[in-house]
Amino acid sequence: MSEYGGYIPSPTPDTAPFWEAAKHHELRIQHCNDCGEYYFYPRPLCRHCLSRNVEWRAVSGRGTLHTFTVNYRSGRASPFPGAFVIAIVELEEGPRLMTNLVDVEPDPARLRIGMAVEVVFADITAEITLPRFRPAAPAR
């Protein structure tokens, strides 16, 4: 585990399956068995059709950069020592997640909306692992 000085999430009954999966380096989000849609953030009702017939499913961890900002002023509680990228990633399955883009220079000239990204996991405590995203490796 790395030294981490940022905010540590506290799982709730609605979010516990997300954090448990992340701890095992797996990205899971909710899926509605009635309308077939995936959705995020966690909640007991489908955001598309309001069904309670939902379950947690593993997703690919691949997506595209939907939007981003570079934060140049880290606060005392920031887990990053300098500039860092706050991003919204649109998963292949459809939902969007707010995250950090890592393993990339935090330079807006080098980042592109629509660029392919993939999930990576940062073990910050024994109980909490954060899903982050990095530019996807080129297809072989």
What's the short story on this structure?
The protein is mainly β and 140 residues long.
General description of the model:
It is a single chain. The chain is mainly beta. The protein has a single domain, classed as OB fold (Dihydrolipoamide Acetyltransferase, E2P), CATH 2.40.50.840. Helices cover 6% and strands 36% of the residues. It contains 1 helix and 8 strands; from the N terminus they run αββββββββ. The protein has one helix at residues 16-23, and strands spanning 28-32, 38-39, 54-58, 62-71, 84-91, 96-101, 116-123, 129-135. The strands form 2 sheets. It has a 5-stranded antiparallel sheet with strand order 6-5-4-7-8. A hairpin with a 5-residue loop joins strand 7 (116-123) and strand 8. The mean pLDDT is 91.
Number of strands: 8
The total tally of domains equals 1
Overall CATH class: Mainly Beta
Distance between the termini: 31 Å
Report Rg.
16 Å
| Order of the strands making up the biggest sheet | 6-5-4-7-8
- Helix-strand makeup class: mainly beta
Order of helices and strands: HEEEEEEEE
Shape: globular
Report on the biggest sheet.
5 strands, antiparallel
